[in-house]
Amino acid sequence: MTAAQDVIVLTDLDDPRVHEYTGLTDVALRLRREPAEGIFIAESNKVIRRALAAGYRPRSFLMGAKALADHGDLLNSPMCQDVPVYTADAELLQKLTGFHLHRGALAAIKRPALRDPADVLAGARRVAVLEDIVDHTNVGAIIRCAAGLGVDAVLVTPRCADPLYRRSVRVSMGTVFNVPWTRLDPWPDGVELLRDKGFTLAAMALSDDAISLDELAADLPERLAILLGTEGGGLSAPSMHLADVVVRIPMTGGVDSLNVAAAAAVAFWATR
C-alpha cells in the first residue's frame, strides 16, 4: 500500500484539486470538458494498468480506501511517484463522482493528440470505420472486438462518440489503448484517403443489392475497410453511395439485423 503521507484525504466536495472527477455521470459535461482539458478518465484496476502499460501518463488518482491496498505496487512505481493520490469517505466520493466507487479506482490521464489518419492506416490491411455511432457502450464494445479479432485500426467520424470517454474505455476493457484509432475528418470526404490507400469499402447495411458476408469472406480484398453505421438509421446515404460493396449478415428466425456491436463482431470474425 502507498504510504499514508502520500495519500491526500479529501474533506471538501469543492476541492479544486479534484475538479477533473466531478460529475462523471454527466455525459454532456464530460464531452465538453475532457478533450478541452486534455484528459480522459480511466476506471477500474485493469483499465488503469492497461493505460499505463501502453505508455499513457496519469495526472492523478482517486480511490476508495479499499482500492488503495490493491494498487500499492502501481502507486509506488516510478511512473507514479509524483502523481497525487486522493481518497475520501464513501459518501463524499459518491457525491463527487456521481456513483458509488466502493473498491473502484479512477485515474485522470493525459489525453494524447489525435494521430494523423494516414499514419494510423500505414501498414493496416483491415480497418473499421464507425460512422456517427453515438452510444459509448457500442463504441467500446466494437473496439474490444477489433482488438480481439485482429482488426488493425479503427477510424471514427467527427460525430461518433469519444472512444476515450469513461464508459467507452471501460467497456473496451482498456483495449482502446492498444488498437490504433483516430478521427477521420471531414466525413464522408475523408473516405478518399481510404481509396488512396487501396482499401475496398464494404458497407454493412440492409440493401436489396447487398451481397452476403459469406461472399465477401470467400474473396477478401487485400485491404478492407468495414463501414458500420449509427444505431438508429445505419449508414448514411452518402456513405452507402461511396462504398464499393454493400454487405449484409445472413439472418434467420425473422430477425433482419443485429446490434451494431454484435454485427461488428460477426463481420470482424468472418473477415479475419
Task: Give structural notes.
Helix content is 33%, strand content 19%. The protein has 2 domains: 4-110, Ribosomal protein L30/S12 (60s Ribosomal Protein L30, Chain: A, 2-Layer Sandwich); 117-270, SPOUT methyltransferase, trefoil knot domain (Alpha/beta knot). The longest helix has 13 residues, at 136-148. Helix 7 runs parallel beside helix 12 (260-270). It is elongated. The strands form 2 sheets. The chain has a 7-stranded parallel sheet with strand order 8-7-6-11-9-12-10. With 272 residues, the protein is α/β, with parallel strands linked by helices.
Structural class: alpha/beta
How large is the radius of gyration?
Answer: 21 Å
Question: For the record, what CATH class of the largest domain applies?
Answer: Alpha Beta
Query: How is the CATH topology of the largest domain named?
Result: Alpha/beta knot
Span from first to last CA? 43 Å
Q: Which architecture of the largest domain does the CATH hierarchy give at level 2?
A: 3-Layer(aba) Sandwich
Helix fraction bin: 25-40%
CATH homologous superfamily placement of the largest domain = SPOUT methyltransferase, trefoil knot domain
* Low-pLDDT stretches: none
What can be said about the biggest beta sheet? 7 strands, parallel
